[in-house]
Each structure stands twice: as structure tokens, then as C-alpha cells.
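Tutorial handout. Part one gives the primary structure; part two gives the three-dimensional structure as C-alpha cells.
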Amino acid sequence: MFFPDAGCLVEIDEPPVTSWQHVAIPSPIQWSSNPPSSGDHYPIWAAFQEYATPVPRGYYVHDLEHGAIVFLYNCTLFDAACSDIVAALEAASNAIPDDPLCTSLGEGVRVRVVITPDPLIDVPIAAASWGWVYKAHCIDLPTLRDFALQHYGHGRETFCSNGTTQF
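Part two.
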């Protein structure tokens, strides 16, 4: 576990990569980290976009396998307005340069990013990539942006075709 210099407690961890099997929707799945950073997942992934309601984990773990960064938040654990958290996650997403794999498809996707609330995380702000987890007790944009830039595009598979918005 790594604790970068930040304005609050920020933890970056590399939990062991577990399985990557597709399981039937809506099978219950157990993951080895919170938020999950690898493991069994549904055969369909979430569309690369921002959501106002939680994306089920089985979908967004599949996004991670495709090299996405998933930004997560739990506003009930934070004193600031939820809009402040979402704005920080959007800023971190905007720091990721355009992905030519995505932009060349003409589907309106700039980068492989999902922003979603997740009531199951135990911190106000988290992010995940394939095999990596970022957890923060405050909005610390420099470390969040650095995590996204360092771990973007490192999944087992490289896909940028858009997923589903129907959960």
C-alpha cells in the first residue's frame, strides 16, 4: 500500500488480480478489494460516461478489464456537497488525454472512464483500474489525476466500443 503526499489520507493499493470470468447477470459476485479492481464480472460493460445512480459492480469491473478508470463516490461519507465531489472526478477524467482508440470509433467516447456513485465504498472518493485501487478521505485532485494518468489503459483487453446504460 502506498500513501502519497496529499491534503488528507489517500491510499493506493495493488490488490492481487483475481479471476476475469464472465458470470451471468445478475449473479452475486465476491471481490477481493473494495472497490473491486479485478475479478469475475458480467459479460456486458457499462457505457463510458457519468451516472447519477450506481452502476452495478459486475458491469464496471468489466470496464476495468477494458482499461478504463472508474471514478466512484459515496456522498454520505463526506461533509462537502456531492456536486463538489463529482466536479473533482470530472476534472480528473478531463485530465486524461483523448484516447485515439476511442475517438476513432466515432461513438462520441473520448476516454474509457465511468463516473458513478457507489454506496458500498467505505471512503468518500475512490477510483479503480485493473489491479489498482485509489481511496481518499477528501478531494485531492493532484493524486486522483495522477492515479488516472498512471493507470489508464492498462486492462487485460483493449476495447473502447461503448457498453450499456441499461442495468
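Part three, for discussion. The mean pLDDT is 95. The radius of gyration is 15 Å.
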